[in-house]
Amino acid sequence: MERQMLRAALDKLKRKGVLLECNKEVDPKFELGAVLKHFSNEVPILFKKVKGSKIPVVGAMFGERKIYYDMLGITHEERIFKMMDAIANPKPTKLLTKGPVMENIITKNIDLPKMFPIPTFHEEDSSSYITAGLVVIKDPETGQRHVSVRRLQINGGNEMSVLVASPLANKQYLEMEKLNKPLEIAVVLGYDYSILLASQISSETYGVDKYEVDSALRGEPLELVKCHSIDLEVPAHAEIVFEGIMPPHRRVTEGPFGELMGYYGNVGPHPVMEVKAIMHRNNPIFQTAFPSREEHLSNGLIREIELYSALKTMVDVKDVNVTVSGGCRFHAFAAINKRNAGDGKSAIIAALASSKDVKHVVIVDNDVDIFSHDDMEWAIASRVQASRDLVVIPGALGSGLEPSHGLNGVTDKIGIDATKPLGDAGKKFERAKIPGFEKIDIEKYLPGIKL
Ligand SMILES: Cc1cc2nc3c(=O)[nH]c(=O)nc-3n(C[C@H](O)[C@H](O)[C@H](O)COP(=O)(O)O)c2cc1C
Q1: Closest C-alpha to ligand 1, atom 18
Q2: Which domain of life is it from (predicted)?
Q3: Any ligand 1 atom below 6 A from CB of 148
Q4: Sign, CA torsion 105/107/109/113
Q5: What class does CATH assign to 295-421?
Q6: Neighbouring residues of 304: CB distance < 8 A, sequence distance ≥ 6
Q7: Low-confidence residues in the chain, pLDDT < 70
Q8: How far is the CA of 435 from the centre of ligand 1 (A)?
Q9: pLDDT value at position 166?
Q10: Domain 5-281 belongs to what architecture?
Q11: How far apart are alpha carbons 77 and 75 in whole angstroms?
């Protein structure tokens, strides 16, 4: 039986009946992504025949909340606390001498576009991209591991550009560059839900080993092996590991690339990775993620912990939603148990302060479903008066990853207090109820109806 990582996850997805398998040949250029996008990147699909390659490709594994919870074995209600617990109590990993990912080791004639079915997603993308690479580096001074997901532009041959946006990863590269030395780097494909989630916490904020957070989340030690040619550890049951170096003083133009919110992001010079060795399992499966939709759910789940924690200090928060349509970072919905007249505004202050990326916040009462856009619109339509309930903060620092911020480098932030008044005034805001509605068994009235 498969243990940990992609194959174990695929077995489970199959058993649950949520994995689609495509037997028709697809072109990795545009066609594969178009099929993923048809299902809004929410349905995992295994493409068994990919033009120009014998290697199958899997995508859209991480784009749907319910699948994510099921695969982690957690409920929606527990998610925030399980993740907080794993971050606060990381558990040791287990280093094996051998693992399935070592079944094949290639050190010569590495030609990435020829060897792997690497997709191109959007019309103006500069090249094909590895969009779901789990990037592993080590701090040369402290030896502390750093794990995150980055996109990698295929430059041809054995070279790809690495988009290192976060300050910490950049710091390690820049430190080595000052010493005129290369930084060792591994890129892992073929992982699972737990490690992707762990990879999305910020090293700067938490300073923990994300492999150890993964061990805590999965409830058993993450099994690792040493890379073949560099001093880094990677998951033993992964599909493919690219090993190499980021040489100092070399940068290549990266982009354009269709990314967050479906826009082409900034084009600029970025460091490169020279792939020196590849380890892969027999009959490897290539893992991709449609940019930038499904992956941001995992990122958004971590943001929900942070939003919840910030709100908890000010109000009695019931639940939070960092919405997918808002790029899993720009929009925050929160339901609160309102106890004091100012709770709605306090919640706005806390939510907007929880991350520079949060741009628009809506606070509702606990009778509103914050995962239903209909219900949210209902609350805004019927419980908000702009002169009283709208908070506008002009010119704050926002995220450069959305184009309206780019107009002048700052972002206006908005909070909407859609909570109803307390006391007698609140009675006007009670919803009309049908006694027995929740308990109705519709099949009794309409036998055989497909729900
Ligand atoms: C599939 C996927 C692709 C991502 N691509 C990038 C990327 O290209 N560049 C980037 O800076 N962050 C990217 N991210 C987000 C980072 O992985 C995430 O912010 C992570 O927490 C960074 O960790 P760090 O703050 O410890 O460096 C991606 C996330 C996912 C899930």
Answers
A1: 200
A2: Bacteria
A3: yes
A4: positive
A5: alpha beta
A6: 79, 80, 320, 321, 322
A7: 165-169, 293-295
A8: 48
A9: 63
A10: Roll (2.30)
A11: 5
